[in-house]
Amino acid sequence: MPVTAVLILAAGTFAIRIAGPLLRDRVTLPDRVRELLSASATVLLFALVAISALTNGKSFGGWALALGVVVGGLAAWRKLPFVAVIVLAAATTAGLRLAGVA
Q1: How many angstroms separate the Cα of 10 from the Cα of each of 4, 22, 31?
Q2: What phi, psi does 101 have (nearest 5°)?
Q3: To 10 degrees, what angle do helices 63-77 and 31-54 make?
Q4: For the whole model, what pTM was predicted?
Q5: Do strands 59-60 and 55-56 pair parallel, antiparallel, or not at all (unpaired)?
Q6: Up-side HSE of residue 30: CA atoms within 13 Å toward CB?
Q7: C-alpha pair distances (Å), 70 with each of 16, 20, 76
Q8: What's the pLDDT tens digit per position in 63-76?
Q9: C-alpha to C-alpha distances, 102 to 34, 49, 51, nearest whole angstrom
């Protein structure tokens, strides 16, 4: 059963990937649809980041983690180097947890 499922998923993935180049000139999307597709990709990515960054297993990760994510987001928005973003977010979360914020 697992081998069959993998083969079916592989065939579907190949079909979707080959459909792009084959249908590129045949299918045109209106500008509004292109805007919606771009916006939906952004929303989906944001939701994925929010869920993975703010949860610990199946529950809320705590306010210290949430504030660490906010600090990291602000640092990234200010275009600080990636290492600085990670260090600030981790230090904020660790400091708040050390102070007793759950």
Answers
A1: 10, 18, 31
A2: -80, 125
A3: 130
A4: 0.60
A5: antiparallel
A6: 3
A7: 37, 37, 10
A8: 999 999 999 999 99
A9: 42, 21, 18
